[in-house]
Design a protein that fits this description.
Elements: E1 6-11, E2 16-23, E3 27-35, H1 37-41, H2 48-70, E4 79-85, H3 89-106, E5 110-114, H4 115-126, E6 134-139, E7 144-151, E8 154-160, H5 166-176, H6 183-191, H7 216-231, H8 238-263, E9 268-272, H9 279-292, E10 295-297, H10 301-304, H11 308-319
Parallel strand pairs: 1-4, 4-5, 6-9, 9-10
Antiparallel strand pairs: 1-2, 2-3, 6-7, 7-8
Helix pairs in contact: 2-3, 4-11, 5-6, 5-7, 5-8, 6-8, 8-9
The protein binds 5'-O-[(R)-(carboxyoxy)(hydroxy)phosphoryl]adenosine and zinc ion (ZN).
5'-O-[(R)-(carboxyoxy)(hydroxy)phosphoryl]adenosine binds next to helix 5 and helix 6.
């Protein structure tokens, strides 16, 4: 009988301190996520120094909880997985040094994982039979990529944002509307009370055939609209603005993902990253895919947001190929996916 591979994973790239035990790449035995959102909320965004300090305070407890819940013993572990980029350097270093200490102490391999790659793997946890190839949109607070997932560890980036990431645009518009932080879920919620066609905000498709994104023009349009309304002394309807803004973002995201799926003959249009939790994106993508016979896949919200289970899953496929990391592995804040 094949031996089970148990990986303890650590994720600290931004404002979630997370640890998970993943068995054979797809079975999550525990996935503990300690979010710092309530702390950063006061500042309207993530404060890097505060994030690092909170990771340091919480990491040991989070790992203990992950181990306890999994019912595993340290001797049952085969590797330690950790996000080493992209992300906030101080935050990454807390996870990385902890992971190195564990790998060294237990004398088992360290497996460094790219955070963007990790987001894709949330879908392998969600859909136990899913296999590459497929196209995937990874949209979060820091990234918006359309990726052709050719195989485990083999990716071609078809498009990426040229300015703001999709989640960043959600967060900035929410701040302007004084909705709070993080903006994505709040805009998603308030949009349900607004009209998506109330304001004709621009949709940026860029050059024909391009899978790149640009959201800064849209963001400026929203700001201009709000300022103009204020100057004219007119009432600002936050629900209508949010719904119209959201529609502009998700329309372009969904269109480009469908086009990519058609071009690559992918049977699936796969979503990943924090923005994959957006209810209108899921709905609109499903509508657009129906016409083209493409199946829409997305992880549960808890696997969309930053979590260590997705890192443990990605690490498993590296581990079985012998792709482990040296204990000299460093944090790379701007790590790209083309490895
Ligand atoms: O993947 P994630 O947790 O962290 C990063 O890697 O950045 O993504 C966080 C981003 C934030 O910008 C947040 O506003 C956005 O995902 N987000 C959403 C929704 N839930 C989270 N954006 C739109 N709609 C949502 N429901
Ligand atoms: Zn993320």
């Amino acid at each position: 009988m094949k031996k089970d591979i148990n990986i303890l994973a650590i994720e600290t790239s931004c404002d979630e301190t997370s640890s998970s035990i993943v068995k054979n790449g797809r079975e999550v035995l525990s996935n503990i996520i300690s979010s710092q959102i309530d702390i950063h909320k006061k500042f309207g965004g993530v404060v890097p120094e505060v994030a690092s300090r909170k990771h340091l305070e919480r990491i040991s407890d989070v790992i203990d909880l992950a181990m306890n819940e999994s019912k595993m013993k340290y001797k049952d572990l085969d590797a330690i997985a950790v996000t080493y980029g992209p992300g906030l350097v101080g935050a990454l270093l807390i996870g990385l040094t902890t992971a190195k200490g564990l790998a060294y102490g237990l004398n088992i391999p360290l497996v460094g994982v790219n955070h963007i790659e990790g987001h894709i793997f949330a879908n392998f946890i969600q859909y136990k039979d899913l296999e590459p190839p497929f196209v995937c949109l990874v949209a979060s607070g820091g990234h918006s990529h359309i990726i052709n997932v050719l195989n485990y560890g083999n990716y071609k980036i078809m498009g990426r944002t040229r300015d703001d990431a999709a989640g960043e645009a959600f967060d900035k518009v929410a701040r302007t509307l004084e909705l709070g932080y993080p903006g994505g879920p709040l805009i998603d919620k308030i949009s349900k009370k607004g009209k998506a066609d109330a304001i004709d905000f621009p949709r940026s498709y860029l050059e024909e055939g391009s899978y790149d994104f640009s959201f800064s023009g849209l963001k400026s349009s929203v700001l201009n609209h709000i300022n103009t309304m204020k100057m004219k002394g007119l009432e600002i309807n936050a629900a209508d603005i949010a719904a119209s803004f959201q529609e502009s973002v998700v329309d372009v995201l969904a269109d480009k993902l469908v086009w990519a799926a058609i071009e690559k003959k992918s049977p699936y249009a796969v979503l990943a990253g924090g923005v994959a939790a957006n209810s209108r994106l899921r709905e609109l993508l499903t509508e657009k895919c129906k016409e083209n016979n493409i199946k829409v896949l997305y992880p549960d919200p808890i696997l969309c947001t930053d979590n260590a289970a997705m890192i443990g899953s990605a690490a498993y496929y590296k581990f079985i190929k012998g792709e482990t990391s040296s204990l000299n592995l460093n944090a790379i804040p701007n790590l790209s996916l083309s490895l």
